[in-house]
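Incident review: delayed structure delivery

Summary: a single-chain prediction request sat in the queue longer than the usual turnaround. Root cause was a stuck worker, restarted by the on-call engineer. No data loss occurred. The affected request and its eventual output are reproduced below so the record is complete for anyone auditing the incident later.

Affected input:
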Amino acid sequence: QVHLVESGGGLVQPGGSLRLSCDVSGFTSRPYAMGWFRQAPGKEREFVAAIVWWTGVTDLADSGKGRFAISRANVNPEAPQNTVHLQMNGLKPEDTAVYYCGRSETASRSIRDRNAYFYWGQGTQVTVSS
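Output delivered after worker restart:
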């Protein structure tokens, strides 16, 4: 059985940092990409960051550039089980949302497109407030 489990969310003051983790298990092959998306109340799920698995190339939404970074725990791209991190610094109240990690199996859609991701975790809440 496949699993994506997010952790690391919480309440943080503006300017603070959080490191989200997504533990991936149960897969027998590597993904095309792993991504982080977020969804605030009343809004659609939006792209935050993604990493193309084999090349390690990363992409960040403009909202997170200079503040966020995505990485994988195991530098070996052959490992189907892995952990993906989202380091978030300089957090702002507008970063408040539920953060989800997703797994994409296809190169036919942009890694910024949530429809490219078939598997999702349950999400972890991030609240930025003083």
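Verification: The CA atoms of residues 17 and 89 lie 4 Å apart.
Action items: add queue-age alerting; document worker restart procedure.
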